[in-house]
Amino acid sequence: MQVIGDHLQQGLDIVFIGFNPSIRSGETGHHYANPNNRFWKILFESGLTPRKYEAAEDARLLEIGYGLTNIVSRPTKAADEITKEEYKQGREELKSKIGFYNPKIACFVGKGVYQEYSGRKNVGWGRQEESVVPGTIDFVAPSSSGLVRMKLADIVAIYSELSELKIKTRGKASGQD
Predict the structure, then answer these.
(1) Radius of gyration of the chain from Cα atoms?
(2) What is the pLDDT of residues 63-110, one digit of tens each?
């Protein structure tokens, strides 16, 4: 099982944050590699990427201003296998990463990921009123797992809001609005 490395650099538009890698990702060394995971399809259909990327191209997202990381780095079959200690350590490491890399938006791929990170229980979809790390917008999107019972069109609509938010943050950064 491979450790799935982060794909991060300074000043990204969006960093996508998952729970932890799947077993399939651990086997391949790439984020969102499980064929039942709809992450790559959702990014394309929501307008966040110009084409549908493959998991093996995950590092290429850096070229278009996106990064990838997880709250816990250990691959598991399901998120319920993650221990409280792993979450505690992951939460602190994630805050440090976000503070250091300073992305415009931190997109949490699943409410549960954000709940573990922020300690907040009542979390809605989309932009959060208050960010955990000042200077980075917190955005909560549905999990891309094939186990999620939400309709794909509804998931894509929420990720489309993220695409619009990205455009707005670029305009503000360049002095436009």
Answers:
(1) 15
(2) 999 999 999 988 888 888 899 999 999 999 999 999 999 999 999 999
Within 10 angstroms of residue 59's Cβ, the number of other Cβ atoms is 13
Domain spans in the chain, listed from the N-terminal domain onward: 14-173
Cross-strand partners of 67: 15
Structure tokens at 167: 């455009």
- According to CATH, the topology of domain 14-173 is Uracil-DNA Glycosylase, subunit E (3.40.470)
pLDDT tens, 24-48? 999 999 999 999 999 999 999 999 9
Pairing of strands 105-109, 14-18: parallel
> Can you tell me whether residue 161 is helix, strand or coil?
helix
pLDDT recorded at residue 1: 67
Closest listed residue to residue 144, CA positions, set 6, 8, 18: 18
Q: Residue 148 corresponds to which tokens in the numbers above? A: 């999620």
Q: Which amino acid is at 127?
A: R
Residue 10 C-alpha from the chain's centroid: 16
Q: How many C-beta neighbours within 10 Å does residue 78 have?
A: 12
Amino acid identity of residue 34, one-letter, is N
| pLDDT of 11 over the 70 cut | yes
pTM tops 0.90: yes
